[in-house]
Design brief:
Blueprint lengths: L1 H4 L2 H18 L6 E2 L4 E3 L2 E2 L4 E2 L4 E3 L2 E2 L4 E2 L4 E3 L1 E3 L4 E2 L4 E4 L38 E3 L4 E2 L4 E3 L3 E2 L4 E2 L4 E2 L7 E4 L4 E5 L3 H10 L6 H6 L7 H53 L2 H21 L3 H12 L5 H30 L5 H32 L5 H25 L3 H25 L14 H35 L2 H15 L4 H18 L3 H28 L1 H7 L8 H16 L3 H6 L4 H26 L1 H27 L6 H17 L8 H23 L3 H15 L1
Parallel strand pairs: 1-4, 2-5, 3-6, 4-7, 5-8, 6-9, 7-10, 8-11, 9-12, 10-13, 11-14, 12-15, 13-16, 14-17, 16-18
Antiparallel strand pairs: 18-19
Helix pairs in contact: 5-10, 5-14, 6-8, 6-9, 6-12, 6-13, 7-8, 7-9, 7-12, 7-14, 8-9, 9-11, 10-11, 12-13, 12-19, 13-17, 14-15, 15-17, 15-21, 15-22, 17-20, 19-20, 21-22
């Protein structure tokens, strides 16, 4: 009987019948079955071809995959777009190699390989496990793949290889046994392909985009942009509303901060106490930046590779909290060691001894807030919540703390702890927000952290911590050096008056928070033209806003000192030079963000290190000559040189030249407005004088720019509101 079934005619008839059955079952799927193919318990997708003399058993083959001639496939699940070469064996049965006395199936199998004979009544060893071959896999000729192995997406198996263990996605393996040779693409390209899953697109989509498959970079630049643009359109739509909301809360925060400084701090605290407050804040910010180990700044650049909502962004929340916690612990120990070795004559000794608990509590809260805000900003695309909490809520709670001190005449040490609690309210707030959104997941994903990812995170974080530390040094070194070279009282005067100058820079905070996310995504897909466009717009729009604020501050400089005690008049020109520093920083746009999120991020660290040297050197030269004004002059000069070299770097490396005649004309209109407002007679009541001067400045400055069409986006906004008013 067996001879009859195995004769050529019977085999041919069986093949013909099997083929007819499978073609009928898969009608409309464009299945092609060649001569003498054996099929048993198999399922197919669409557009599959099984070439002659191939045997398939208990297997699934998804769309567009083919199996070449004389191949054996059993107990396998094969994905889409797989190319399986000739004479391949997939899913060969296993034999026991240890513990069992014999590897012969007579002792563990009921199949009866020895002429039907078996000594057991049930299976005692699993001979066949499911072999998984994912999508877009190429398997060369005469490859043998062990049962139970998983071949990742995009992998290539060299001809003649024997695969005995799992193969990573987009890796090339070969040999006996097969060993890793290389990855097909760079890690960021692999991450993209894994997330994009082009093989899940339909045939019409593939036809439309077929030309992009000739170059992975071309695919990333075009298709990912389109894919991410769906997220980007969400972001852009939300960012439009976020920017409006963020700006409203930022300016409300400026008003509260202005009231807090001019009325509460300047009248409720003496210059020395104001100096102590700012020194505590300075050391807190520096310690928090060091403790983060640069991971918060690095996250902006690296998070696009973690983004995957279905996998909780591959343990990103865990890293955001764990890495800074370790860093903060390390630097806290160094902080305590540093206290014991500080020279007795240093002003810092007393500060550390008296206020160590305050500094550490404030630092811990700041680091936790930064971690949660970074996740909220990058993973949830919410740039406004953190900004609102820091710029509005925190200023409001601090103002309330100041008011309590002024009303109840609290002792300074007690006020400090109330002030610390007021500063920590945003941290509690954002924690509750994330917890309610059910995204507070601390489960790590160490498997995602392959060597390439760890190398990228380590490298970016190292330079980010240096950059962040130097940023903090630059931001607070003036106060520290004034305290050391002059006294704490003048530090307080400098801090209060410098606040008015920093108002120029405040609008950039929400812009940088949003811009950093957009630019990082554009770098990921090599969208240089998009970055150039954002850079150019940032320069002209930020100059427009900064110039208006600068003119408003300096035109009302005498009115400022009507609101604060006379002893602060020593800081008049501090306001001028700090305002000028903010104007320079704003006018040069997103230069720092672009460099920090590019492959040349290390150079931004080098620029910052040079800036520290310039800042410290100029402070040492200028403070003995001009006092606190000299420190402000040093800040303005250092900011000018710093941004000039950033500007040159982007011109040389990327041919990004964002400046044009429109920028120059806006600057000239601003100076002209400031010139003519100087001839306006001063009003007897300073509030009316502020209103009159500010109104004239806005009218002359904004109307001139509008008529000359120097800022297209401003014209669009004004025209939009004009249409609404007239309709």
């Amino acid at each position: 009987m067996e001879t009859l079934l195995l004769n050529p005619i019977s085999l041919w008839l069986r093949w013909l019948f099997t083929k007819a059955v499978y073609l009928f079952k898969n009608r409309g799927k464009h299945l092609k079955i060649e001569y003498m193919v054996e099929l048993s318990s198999c399922t197919f997708g669409s557009y599959n071809t099984i070439y002659k003399y191939t045997r398939l058993r208990n297997s699934t083959i998804d769309s567009f995959s083919y199996v070449a001639r004389n191949t054996l496939v059993q107990h396998a699940k094969i994905g889409k777009f797989c190319c399986i070469g000739p004479h391949v064996s997939i899913g060969l049965g296993a034999h026991p190699s240890s513990q069992y006395v014999s590897s012969h199936p007579l002792f563990y199998s009921i199949i009866g390989q020895a002429s039907g004979l078996t000594l057991v009544e049930k299976e005692l060893f699993q001979e066949y496990q499911e072999t998984i071959i994912e999508n877009d896999v190429w398997i060369g000729a005469q490859v043998i793949i062990k049962s139970g192995v998983k071949i990742g997406n995009g992998a290539i198996i060299a001809s003649g290889s024997v695969v005995t263990k799992d193969v990573e996605p987009y890796s090339v393996v070969g040999g006996v046994p097969a060993k890793f040779i290389k990855y097909r693409f760079a890690q960021e390209q692999i991450t993209f392909l894994q997330k994009f899953k082009w093989w899940e697109q339909n045939l019409d989509w593939l036809k439309e985009h077929k030309d992009l498959f000739l170059d992975v970079d071309l695919l990333m630049k075009n298709l990912i942009v389109n894919s991410l643009d769906r997220k980007e359109s969400y972001k852009t739509g939300t960012i439009g509303s976020q920017t409006i909301k963020g700006s409203i809360y930022s300016y409300l925060g400026i008003i509260i901060g202005f009231f807090s400084v001019t009325v509460l701090r300047s009248h409720g605290l003496g210059p020395e106490e104001n100096g102590i407050l700012d020194l505590i804040l300075s050391f807190t910010m520096i310690l928090a930046q060091l403790g983060s180990l640069g991971f918060f700044n690095a996250s902006i650049r690296c998070f696009p590779y973690f983004r995957d909502e279905t996998k909780n962004h591959n343990g990103f929340m865990f890293l955001l909290l764990a890495i800074p916690f370790v860093g903060l612990l390390l630097f806290t120990l160094l902080f305590y060691l540093g206290k014991s070795v500080l020279p007795v004559e240093s002003n810092f000794t007393t500060l550390f001894q008296d206020y160590t608990p305050v500094i550490l509590a404030l630092t811990l809260g700041t680091v936790l807030f930064n971690a949660l805000d970074t996740f909220n900003r990058t993973a949830l695309l919410d740039a406004v919540t953190g900004s609102t909490l820091k710029e509005f809520v925190q200023k409001l709670t601090v103002a309330i703390a100041m008011g309590l001190m002024l009303y109840f005449t609290l002792p300074f040490p007690l006020f400090l702890w109330i002030w610390v609690l007021a500063n920590l309210i945003p941290t509690v707030w954002i924690f509750i927000k994330l917890y309610r959104k059910k995204v507070f997941n601390l489960k790590p994903d160490f498997a995602f952290l392959n060597p390439e990812m760890v190398k990228m995170l380590s490298s970016v974080s190292l330079f980010a911590v240096l950059t962040g530390f130097t940023t903090m040094i630059i931001q607070y070194i003036d106060k520290i050096m004034i305290n050391e070279m002059i006294n704490t009282s003048l530090t307080g005067i400098y801090s209060i008056t410098a606040f008015f100058g920093t108002v120029v820079l405040m609008p950039s905070r929400i812009m940088y928070r949003i811009g950093g996310i957009i630019i990082a995504e554009k770098w990921k897909v090599h969208d240089i033209d998009g970055i150039k466009s954002v850079y150019k717009k940032s320069c002209i729009n930020q100059l427009l806003i900064a110039m208006l604020i600068f003119i408003g501050i300096w035109a009302n400089i005498d009115n400022v000192f009507e609101m604060i005690p006379k002893e602060y008049e020593a800081g008049k020109y501090v306001i001028l030079f700090i305002s000028l520093s903010g104007l320079i920083e704003m006018a040069t746009g997103f230069n720092g963000v672009i460099i920090a999120t590019s492959k040349y991020y290390k150079y931004d660290t080098y620029f910052f290190l040079a800036l520290i040297f310039i800042t410290i050197a100029t402070n040492y030269i200028f403070i003995p000559i001009w006092g606190i004004t000299g420190s402000a002059m040093a800040t303005a000069l250092a900011t000018l040189l710093f941004n000039f070299f950033r500007y040159l770097f982007l011109v040389i490396k990327f041919k990004m030249q964002p400046m044009g005649l429109n920028n120059l004309f806006i600057l000239m209109i601003g100076l002209f407005t400031l010139f003519i407002i100087g001839y306006l007679p001063k009003q007897s009541f300073f509030v009316w004088d502020i209103i009159l001067r500010s109104g004239i400045i806005t009218l002359v400055y904004v109307s001139s720019i509008y008529v000359l069409k120097l800022a297209p986006e401003m014209n669009t906004i004004i025209d939009k509101y004009k249409t609404k008013l007239l309709s």
